[in-house]
Write a structure and sequence with these properties.
The chain is α+β, with helices and mostly antiparallel strands. About 40% of the residues lie in helices and about 15% in strands.
């Protein structure tokens, strides 16, 4: 069975043409090497598939030439435990990164308060200096 057809049947990609484009773009690897669209796959092969920011390493456990429901498609492969843990770690890091960013830019009122705060704090330290003139 061709790898593009299996990726489509296993529901990694919506259409075979999208699967083909991903393979040609270097998003699918076997044994750390790029796969060709016509590559014949077998049960037990390990594929690394990159979809967006996620990179999955799966072991093929079944072959199907037809696209069925998601519950059946999930039985065609098994994701490796290291792949699952790596994806979860990266997802949590992306989530924490999004929390560090403000949800919205400051409004006019917020900017005024920020400027007032900055001016107030700089006035306190205008006379202060590291150097002393008295020796």
């Amino acid at each position: 069975m061709r790898v593009d057809k299996w990726l489509w049947a296993a529901r990694f990609f919506k259409t075979r043409s999208i699967a083909k484009a991903a393979i040609e773009g270097g998003k699918v690897h076997h044994a750390s090497e790029r796969v060709k669209v016509s590559k014949e796959i077998r049960i037990g092969m390990e594929l690394t598939i990159q979809q967006g920011k996620d990179k999955k390493t799966v072991v093929i456990t079944g072959l199907s030439s037809t696209r069925g429901p998601a519950s059946i498609a999930q039985q065609l492969y098994e994701e490796t435990p290291t792949s699952i843990s790596r994806r979860e770690l990266l997802a949590s890091q992306r989530k924490l990164d999004n929390l560090a960013k403000p949800e919205h830019k400051p409004s006019k009122k917020d900017r005024r308060q920020i400027n007032k705060f900055k001016e107030h704090n700089t006035e306190q330290f205008e006379d202060w200096s590291y150097h002393t003139d008295s020796y």
